[in-house]
Design goal:
The complex is a heterotrimer of chains A (170), B (74) and C (381). By secondary structure, chain A is an alpha/beta fold. Helices cover 40% and strands 21% of the residues of chain A. Chain A has a seven-stranded mixed sheet with strand order 2-1-5-4-3-6-7, with helices on one face. In chain A, a hairpin with a 5-residue loop joins strand 6 and strand 7. By secondary structure, chain B is an all-alpha fold. Chain B has one domain. Chain B is 50% helix and 0% strand. In chain C, strand 12 and strand 13 form a beta hairpin. Chain C has one domain: Porin, CATH 2.40.160. Chain C has a 16-stranded antiparallel β-barrel. The chains are: A alpha/beta (170), B mainly alpha (74), C mainly beta (381). At the B-C interface, helix 1, helix 2 and helix 3 of B face helix 1, strand 1, strand 6, strand 7 and strand 8 of C.
């Protein structure tokens, strides 16, 4: 291959690196920025608006009944909610399934104390750029995103707890 | 050596593209794909046994069980 | 920059990118236990036994699996009754699997050891699997090395070796929310003693009462094969069921060309039942050195009369039913009871049934039915 072509490829690779790094940081949803507001219907039928929860620390968790790690995480999130609720904290579960019955069925088997909202048209999932299941977003008392976590692996709940503990003190 | 280097650069670009590609099936749209009936290998023990039956009675072998698909969680 | 340092750095950088590609990870294999009873009944051969598999996670990154498998064989197959007598045999196979998950990469190691009175095989395998392109693509590679020792019952001095190397490359791609496809390529190279020490070929011999006589088979000491398979599963939203189809193309340097087609339909029923139906059709051409009847003794350098290397087709119809039970019973999350049954029809085009009699070389072509049963219980925890 000609040396000009090979140099072109190498420049291309460098440009590619920069582009990827740039794209990874150019998201609307990221730490430090305000959490996009939304209104969703909960399982109990009432509407819930995120901005109404300003003043509290909120842990938003996007989940689905078919997602194994989400199921594992649920009771741990419930324990976290019960522990820190008196200090001005709430977990907010957002189910992303089109079929609402799946969420209801799951909650019947594994009930939780925190509000579970239904994003069955995936508007909020799109706005929050959900790229993995589950996705956890922790919002501080001023409505800013302070922590983003994709997926769930055994032990991640310790990371959530650490973040929440710090934020409730603010 | 320059040819190999260019091939590696090309692979590198492809990999980076792979890292940055937005999935056209969003993770929250994967409900059907996560269904166990959509698995290539739902009952691994039974499937590997049947595979063994064919392998030992026919002249062809290889390219059997597939992997992949699923919920794409984490 | 000196050329050799660049050529070393770049692959390293690529490997790093591959492993570090985005935050997040894939999932380990499910934790489960399977207890299976298997049975094969066909062509005078009966084989049955258990297969037990247990898979457990150690921490959040490692999965370990063990399998114990037994074949209890009673064989009065056509090869056996025409050249020897009915025999029984027991083969035991033990396997250990370890999977390590890091971000989107899964690394797997496996070892299988199989033992019977006249055959011993140890196989070690290594594999790597990577989720890419937004988790819609999975690329996997694998290599396995097997070492076989072949002995002969009744002849203590007989001890031969063969080794098997297999290379495998696979890609699985999610195409739409309802469609996933995969392509797999596998190359297998055998080296060593590749035939069966008990099997014979026949040749015309007017000096004998039968009109033919037997001599031991002679195989080449290498075999190179390639197989390529494409499969797809499509979800039917209206019905809540799935259709799967696949085709595998095979060829090797022994002259065998084969194509295998599979079609299946899986449908859940009510809350707890899953039913499935499958069809399989396999067609292959014979090996270059195969013949049902050679014209005279030592007709060729290589001689085979193994029906597996002949020109034949096999057609199979399978059905299965699965009942799922349990929602959190202490240790177990859920479980299922399953039964699967396959009927396979083997139809040989140039292997003759010499038990049936007839003019030499004009005996009827052989065919037989086989029935394969699997009954098993699975537990997830």
């Amino acid at each position: 291959m000609s040396s000009r072509l090979s140099r072109g490829l190498r420049i291309g690779l460098l440009a590619g690196c920069i582009a990827v790094l740039a794209s990874l940081s150019a998201s609307a949803v990221e730490q430090g920025k305000a959490a996009p507001d939304f209104t969703l219907k909960s399982l109990t039928g009432t509407n819930l608006k995120l901005s109404e929860m300003t003043g509290n620390v909120v842990l938003i968790n996007f989940w689905a009944s078919w997602c194994g790690p989400c199921r594992e995480e649920m009771p741990l999130l419930n324990a976290l909610h019960k522990k820190y609720e008196p200090l001005g904290f709430s977990v907010l579960g957002i189910n992303v399934e089109e079929n609402v019955d799946a969420a209801r069925g799951f909650m019947k088997d594994f009930p939780v104390d925190f509000p579970v909202l239904l994003d069955n048209t995936n508007q909020v999932s799109q706005r929050y750029q959900v790229i993995a299941m589950p996705t956890t977003v922790v919002v501080d008392r001023d409505g800013n995103i302070r922590y983003l976590h994709q997926g769930y692996k055994s032990g991640d709940e310790a990371k959530y707890q650490k973040m929440v503990k710090t934020l409730v003190r603010e | 050596m320059p040819a190999n280097l260019n091939l590696l650069c090309a692979c590198g670009l492809l990999l980076l593209a792979g890292c940055a590609t937005e999935p056209w099936v969003k993770p929250y749209e994967r409900a059907n794909l996560a269904n166990p009936i959509m698995s290539f290998n739902r009952n691994p023990v039974s499937a590997s046994y049947l595979h063994h039956v064919y392998d030992s009675r026919e002249g062809a072998r290889g390219a059997g069980i597939a992997t992949g698909g699923g919920c794409g969680c984490n | 920059m000196p050329p050799d340092t660049v050529s070393l750095r770049l692959p390293g950088l690529l490997l790093l990118l591959l492993v570090a590609c985005q935050a997040g990870a894939a999932v380990l294999p499910e934790e489960r236990a399977d207890l299976l009873y298997h049975r094969y009944d066909g062509g005078g051969v009966e084989v049955d036994g258990p297969s037990v598999l247990v898979r457990k996670n150690l921490g959040s990154s490692v999965s370990v699996g063990v399998n114990y498998y037994v074949d209890n064989v009673t064989s009065a197959s056509i090869d056996v009754v025409t050249t020897a007598s009915k025999y029984t045999e027991k083969r035991t196979e033990r396997s250990l699997f370890v999977d390590y998950l890091r971000e989107k990469t899964t690394m797997s190691l496996g070892y299988t050891y199989s033992d019977e009175s006249d055959f011993e095989a140890g196989t070690a395998s290594i594999g790597i699997s990577q989720d890419m392109f937004g988790d819609l693509t999975t690329v996997s590679m694998g290599f396995a090395y097997g070492d076989n020792t072949i002995e002969k019952n009744g002849d203590d001095s007989f001890k031969k070796h063969a080794d098997v190397r297999s290379y495998r490359l696979g890609v699985s791609q999610i195409l739409t929310r309802n469609l996933v496809m995969s392509a797999t390529y596998e190359s297998i190279i055998d080296d060593g003693y590749l035939n069966n020490p008990y099997r014979s070929v026949r040749y015309r011999d007017s000096d004998t009462s039968l009109g033919y006589a037997f001599q031991p088979e002679v195989y080449p000491d290498t075999r190179n094969s390639s197989a390529f398979a494409v499969r797809g599963i499509y979800y039917l939203e209206q019905l809540g069921s799935a259709v799967n189809a696949g085709v595998r193309f095979y060829e090797d340097n022994w002259g065998i060309d084969a194509t295998t087609y599979e079609l299946g339909y899986t449908f859940p029923y009510e809350e707890n039942w899953i039913f499935e139906a499958t069809l399989r059709f396999h067609q292959q051409s014979e090996a270059d050195f195969y013949s049902d009847l050679f014209p005279y003794k030592d007709a060729q350098n290589y001689l085979a009369r193994d029906k597996e290397l002949s020109d034949f087709t096999s057609t199979a119809v399978g059905v299965g039913a699965s009942y799922e039970f349990g929602r959190s019973w202490s240790l177990i999350d859920r479980g299922s009871l399953n039964i699967q049954y396959d009927w396979i029809y083997f139809d040989y085009n140039n292997f003759r049934d010499i038990e049936d009699g007839g003019a030499v070389g004009e005996e009827p072509e052989y065919s037989f039915d086989a029935y394969v049963t699997r009954i098993f219980a699975s537990f997830w925890f």
